[in-house]
Amino acid sequence: MVKPAREPAREPPAEKAKGRCVVCGRPRDPKYDPFCSKRCADIDLHRWLKGGYVIPGGKPPSTEGEEEP
Ligand SMILES: [Zn+2]
Question: How far, in Å, is the centroid of ligand 1 from the Cα of 12?
Answer without folding.
Answer: 18
